Give the backbone structure.
Amino acid sequence: MITALFKVTGQGSYKGFSVSGHSGYSEAGSDIVCAAVSSAVMLTVNSCIDGFNVDAVPEVYDDTVRFAVNEKSLDADRLIGALKEHLEAMSEEYPENVAVTIEES
């Protein structure tokens, strides 16, 4: 299962997210759920850093992507919020393959 954790401040700003695991929907190389999640995560990270110059740190370890926002950014809030909504929609369609949680701090 792919698990996505979104870290949110008490004011509703995103501090970052992590996405890890494998969906298990299909064999590697033909797993549409994994491909959709990977593409959405890459688009979010690249748009934040390259498109909007968000001060953030991406980290990739084996099957985990972590993305930490260093300072509040409206652009990051919008992009990460859109990723969260997208993955929540995927978790509704594929509940055995994608799970989304929110951690408020």
About this structure: The mean pLDDT is 96. The radius of gyration is 13 Å. Helices lie at 32-51, 74-93. The chain is about 40% helix and 30% strand.
